[in-house]
Write a structure and sequence with these properties.
The chain has 276 residues and is α/β, with parallel strands linked by helices. The protein has a domain of 177 residues: Rossmann fold (3-Layer(aba) Sandwich), CATH 3.40.50. The chain is 46% helix and 7% strand. It contains twelve helices and five strands. A five-stranded parallel beta sheet has the order 2-1-3-4-5, covered by helices on one side. Strand 1, helix 3 and strand 2 form a beta-alpha-beta unit. Helix 4 runs parallel beside helix 6 and helix 6 runs parallel beside helix 10. The protein is globular. The two termini are 26 Å apart.
Length: 276
């Protein structure tokens, strides 16, 4: 059995504290932040979670204040009311990893104590397989953003979420005529979702390669977060591994999480984070 990185780090820290005579129960508790910002793409913006092709930031899994979603912000507010009103959504719909440096700069300028980052879907979900972001470029983009946060907010905590499994989106939606129509009409994620009912080997192989690209992105996110240090927490692929269902996806585009999907994303990502 592989022990998650965060567990190993916690055990090591507790051992050191015991040797030094400190109280592990007190020292192990990480104070919940009094401010936060989210960086990322349309998922973090809550796109299509409450209306037709609009951002619904109140329903964001990260910084939203919609009670049904029970975002990171609301969960933190329950234990630290001083965060009230200090939940800033710096994400932008359509963003890719290349946009993270700029968004990181915005979060730094806001002086927040906690930053969430969910990015990569748009790097893989492009017009064709050939236009996906190369893995090395993706990693360089992530490193530049994290380095900017670490330099500007050295004490802030950063939660990095894995990219969702877009291959699963194809799997659960390919049998729905409505999903197939939306994917085609709006040109959604054609690198993965083109020819959704095809069983031709070329299409099967293409989908597998796109899924592998997402897996590679997640490996780079994990490594970048580990290189950042103790103030960065990767979700150990919890978001990627979650077996979401079609009822958790917007019926306007059959791509973005709806309110139910945002609630699940909030629960899964928070449970695999800092544990406030």
């Amino acid at each position: 059995m592989t022990i998650p990185r965060r567990v190993l780090a916690t055990l090591a820290g507790l051992t050191a504290l015991v040797l030094l005579g400190a109280d592990p129960a007190t020292a192990a508790a990480t104070p919940p932040p009094a401010s936060m910002a989210s960086i990322g793409d349309s998922i973090t913006r809550g796109f299509n979670a409450c209306g037709w092709y609009v951002d619904c930031t109140s329903r964001s899994f990260s910084t939203g204040d919609y009670s049904t979603v029970n975002s990171h912000y609301l969960r933190i507010r329950a234990v630290n009311p001083t965060i009230q009103g200090r939940n800033l959504n710096d994400a932008r719909s359509g963003a890719k990893s290349a946009d993270m440096y700029g968004q990181a700069g915005t979060a730094v300028g806001q002086g927040v104590e906690y930053v969430t980052m969910l990015i990569g879907a748009n790097d893989a979900c492009t017009s064709s397989e050939a236009t996906m972001t190369p893995v090395a470029t993706f990693r360089a983009n992530i490193d530049s953003a994290l380095n900017r946060i670490r330099a500007g907010l050295p004490n802030a905590r950063v939660a990095v979420m894995s990219v969702p499994d877009i291959h699963r989106l194809w799997f659960i939606g390919k049998g729905s005529g409505s999903a197939r129509s939306a994917w085609s009409a709006f040109g959604i994620c054609q690198s993965m979702l083109a020819n959704p009912t095809s069983t031709a080997q070329a299409d099967v192989d293409r989908r597998a390669r796109v899924r592998q690209r997402v897996i590679d992105y997640n490996s780079q996110l994990a490594q970048a977060c580990a290189a950042y240090g103790a103030n960065c927490d990767f979700d150990d692929n919890a978001v990627f591994n979650y077996p979401f269902v079609l009822s958790q996806v917007s019926t306007w585009d059959y791509f973005h999480p709806n309110t139910s999907g945002q609630a699940v994303l909030a629960s899964v990502s928070y449970a695999n984070g800092f544990g406030w």
